[in-house]
Amino acid sequence: MGSVVALRPRAKEELTSSLGMLIALGSWAMMFGALFFTYAGVRSRAVTWPPPGVPHLPVALPALNTVVLLASSVAMSLGIRALSRGNRRAIVPALSVAAILGAVFLALQFVVWKDLWQKGL
């Protein structure tokens, strides 16, 4: 009896893309780790934190922006899942919602950074 061999012509490409993603995520993790350690070092040497005269950072608008970004990711994931199940009609509304939420995210980012700039940060 002959054996069945599964052909995977893109196996090498899958390994390369997985390795590339792992390296990219590792570099982001190292960058954020360095930022957090730098922040901890600066904060541990400060007599008072935050330094006097520094305006408080906004919380509500960035929190809302995080929710918008997560909702955009959920819409995109639902569209990709529907497409993988063969439902081609569901991808257009999902991509539309994701794009609109992405535009809202960018607009909110502009508002937050403009406010920080005006406060001197």
Protein described:
This protein is mainly alpha-helical and 121 residues long. 73% of the residues lie in helices and 0% in strands. The protein contains 3 helices and no strands. Helix 2 (60-84) runs antiparallel to helix 3. The longest helix has 35 residues, at 11-45. The protein starts with 10 loop residues before the first helix and ends with a helix. The mean pLDDT is 89.
Compute the number of strand runs.
Answer: 0
Structural class: mainly alpha
How many helices? The count is: 3
Q: What can be said about the biggest beta sheet?
A: none
Helix content: over 70%
Question: Ends: how far apart?
Answer: 73 Å
SS strand fraction:
under 5%
- Provide mean pLDDT, rounded: 89
Unreliable stretches: none
Radius of gyration: 22 Å
3D shape? flat
Order of helices and strands: HHH
Summary?
The chain has 121 residues and is mostly helical. Helices cover 73% and strands 0% of the residues.
SSE blueprint and pairings:
Layout: H1 11-45, H2 60-84, H3 91-118
Which properties best describe this structure?
121 residues
